Amino acid sequence: MQLYLVTTLPLACSSYTTINDSTRSTSYTSSVGCDSTAFGSSGTWVRFTGVGGTQIPTSPPVTGTCGTSAPGWYNGSMPNISATISGTVCYNWSGNTCNWHNAIQVTNCNSFYIYNLINVPVCSLRYCTI
Fold first, then answer.
1. Count of domains observed in the chain
2. InterPro entries, per this entry (predicted)?
3. Alpha-carbon distance 76 to 37, whole Å?
4. What is the pLDDT of residue 6?
């Protein structure tokens, strides 16, 4: 007899907004704007897809990339499968890799991550992808 471990994924893994945006890539160097009104103050669950990238980077991108002046990156550990954790997004600006920051949540949906993102603290900040 074989036993199988069944992992139940959080509901958010099947109910999120998909963002397919090549301008969020750490390799994109033109200006687009900021995320000061993109996700609301209480947050929106999003999944990044496509050529722009599928995850928020876990190390600081170079300033002036990702379509903004101060690019955002996730400063923390990624969750295990089916887990949701709270963490911090930092924004790299003027020699300080965490000049601004805000809290987010990250969920591991087995084959992809989703993020509960809020509006960034000030304009010229943007969530990046790799």
1. 1
2. D8C_UMOD/GP2/OIT3-like (IPR057774)
3. 24
4. 57
